[in-house]
Write a structure and sequence with these properties.
Order of helices and strands: EEHHHEEHHEEE
Number of domains: 1
Number of helices: 5
Oligomer: single chain
Mean pLDDT: 77
Radius of gyration: 16 Å
Shape: globular
Distance between the termini: 31 Å
Structural class: alpha/beta
CATH topology: Muramoyl-pentapeptide Carboxypeptidase, domain 2
CATH class: Alpha Beta
Number of strands: 7
Largest sheet: 5 strands, mixed
Strand content: 15-25%
Length: about 190
């Protein structure tokens, strides 16, 4: 299974993602938003967030573990882990899912994401609930994959506490702790 096409770039004028040939389909923001809309319609708000979060976390974790092995990534200590986790928002920018930055408060990481494609698509929907479960799962899965490189391993979860889709100016996600560390996702236009 190929997760990403071999050659991806951005059109300098439209900012659309481009692939090297027409044999690839990108998981675009509109596809993700449509999946959300259909799941909310079919399953309701109580089941949908858990399905999206758990699927994104597990899938991201598995893909990142494979990439870590393929590129023989190593981390020396918890400082290396913190540095790696602090760069996670750059990955979503590359794929066009928003623009992010990280603030670290003690052992907690706060991911502030602006222009989340999912949050923006629900901003005026009347749902008025957090919707960035995909990004929360992505951040938790990535963090957990890297955390396994440092002993003792840290388990991550990410909970959205604010979201532009609820009328907040941004979204924030928080992970829980069981030698578990919090990841806070703030989506502005996130919170965990």
């Amino acid at each position: 299974m190929v997760d990403f096409p071999g050659f991806v770039t951005r059109d300098s004028e439209t900012r659309y993602l481009l692939v090297g040939d027409d044999g690839h389909v990108l998981l675009s923001n509109s596809i993700i938003a449509e999946i959300y809309h259909r799941l909310f319609s079919a399953l309701g708000y109580e089941k949908t967030p858990k399905i999206i979060y758990e699927s994104a976390k597990k899938g991201t974790y598995q893909v990142q573990k494979n990439l870590i092995a393929a590129y023989r990534v190593t981390l020396k200590d918890e400082e290396d882990l913190s540095n790696r986790i602090s760069r996670l928002p750059l990955y979503i920018q590359t794929c066009g899912h928003g623009r992010g930055k990280t603030v670290q408060r003690g052992e907690e990481f706060i991911f502030m994401v602006r222009h989340s494609s999912v949050a923006e698509s629900f901003k005026n929907s009347g749902l008025e609930r957090p919707v960035c479960h995909f990004l929360a799962g992505f951040f938790a899965g990535m963090a957990e994959a890297y955390a396994e490189l440092v002993k003792p391993s840290i388990s991550y979860s990410c909970v959205e506490t604010k979201c532009v889709a609820t009328g907040d100016p941004h979204t924030v996600e928080l992970p829980n702790q069981r030698r578990e560390t919090c990841l806070i996702l703030e989506i502005g236009t996130l919170h965990a």
